[in-house]
Amino acid sequence: MSQNIGQLLTRRAYRDPGLGAVYEPDSGRRFSYVEINARSNQVANALTETGVAKGDRVGLLLMNGCEFFETFFAVGKVGAVNVPLNWRLIPDELEFILSDAGATVLIYGEEFAENVAELRRRGGTTAITTWIQVGSAAPGGVVDYNHWMGAASADEPEAGASGDDLLFIMYTSGTTGLPKGVMHSHNTVLWATLTIAATSDFHQGDVYLNSLPMFHVGALSPVMSGVFGGATIILLKAFDPKLSWELIRDEKVTTTLMVPAMLQFMLAVRDEAEHDASTLRWCMSGAAPVPVSLIKAYEALEIEIHQVYGLTETGGPACLLTSADAMARAGSTGKAFYFTEVRVAREDGTDCDADESGEILVKGPHIMMGYWNRPDATAEAVVDGWLHTGDVATMDADGFVTIVDRVKDMLISGGENVYPAEIENVLLSNDKVADAGVIGIPSDKWGESPLAVIVASDDSLTADELIEFCTGKLAQFKTIRAVEFVAEIPRNPSGKILKRELREQYNYPAPG
Description:
The chain is built from 15 helices and 27 strands. By secondary structure, it is an alpha/beta fold. Helix 8 (about 215-230) links the parallel strand 10 (about 205-210) and strand 11 (about 230-235).
C-alpha cells in the first residue's frame, strides 16, 4: 500500500466538497473541505516555491487552528517532513529539537514571536533559513504567512512522497531525559488511520471537538481520522471546559477526546440547565488510567467514556475500550485495535499469565519507523517488531488490558512493587480531591513509601483525613505516608503527570 497522506484531504474535498471540514471557535472561521484543501494546496505550492524539497524538515510552532491543519497536509503533499513543536517549550528546548531534526523552515504563530526572536538572535544554532509568521505583521527578515501562501496557486500539487517516506518527526515528551524524535511515514500513519477507523465508533458526518494540542499524536491522529472518515472538526485553540460544553451544545458535537484531568474540570463547571450534551455519543480518554468513579459520573450523564491506550511510537493506537464494554469493563483500556497485536510480557520476554502484571508490547504496521538519528534507542525499543512500551498492565483471559503504571514510575516499598496509578485511582474517588499524583520518597524502613500530591476541591481536606480514607482500600504497603497540597499538578501537554518534577520537588524522607 503506497499512499500520500496529504492527499487524504484531496480525496475528501473531491468526495464531499461542501461538507464542513474545520471550525475555529477563536476566530469564527469555517471552511468546507474544498476550501481548506485549496488553502492547503496554496501552502504546498508556496513551500515548493520557497525551495522546500522532498525530505526537508519543516517546523510547526502553531497552536490548534486552520494554519496548523492546512500546513500539516501541505507538507505531506510535497513530500517534506513535519516537525510539530510543543509550544510550551522554552527557546533552549526548541533550539535542541529544531537542531536535532535539521529543520530548514519554521512556521510559527505570532504568540511565539518572542521565543522565535530569541532563536534568531542566536544565529546559526539551527539550520533554519526561512522563518514564516502567522498572525500580525511579520518583523524584518520574517515572511508573512498570509501573503506568502495567498500569492501561491491553489492547484493540486503532484504528490512528492508516499509509502515509507517520512511524514512527520514528533518528539516525545522527554519526561525521563532529552526528547527523541519519533519517525512516522505515510504508510505508518495510513495504517494508524485505518486501524482507528476499523475499531472506534467514528461515523461519517460526525462533529469532533479537538481540545488537545495537535503537536501531540493523541490529538493529531483523531484529526486525520476525521478527514479520512468525513467528519467536521472543531479546533479549539486551548482547552476551556465551559466553552467546551457550549460547543457541544451549539455545534451538536458527537464525539471528542479528553484526558482524565480535563474530564474532571468539565464536570466541575457543568450547568445541567445550560449545557445540553444529548448529541455527544462518547468521549475517548487516555494519557492516564481513567478512574472508575469518573466513568460512572459520565455514565450518569449518558455519556460513554471509551478508554484508549496509545503512544507516539504507535502513531496513536494500541488498545481501545468500545461501546459494548464501556461499563461492564470500566477501568480497562480494552482490547488491541483492529490491525494491532498486544502482549503483556515478563522481563524474560515470555507472556504473562492472565491477570499477571507485565510490560505491554505492541506490534502492527503503524509502529514507528524508529527514532530520528538514534539507532541505538530504536534497537532497544523495538525488538523483533515488538515495541517495548515501558508501561505495566495486566491482560485478562478475554484479552482486555488494564493499565497499571509506567515501569519508570513504579516504586518498591518493603520489597513489593507499588504502581502509583492504583493509589491515584483511589484518591480520585474522594469527593474532596480534584487531582492527584503519587510518587515514591525514600524510607529508612521500607526503602520507598508513597507520597500523595493533591489538588483539593474542598479546603477542609487534611492529610490525616486522606490517609484514613485510603486505609482498607489499599494494601498496607501501598498506603500513603505523606501528603502535599498544591494548586496544580504539573502535566505535559498530553495530560501525563510530570513525575520527574514532583520527585525533584519532594525528595525528603518519609515519616517513620
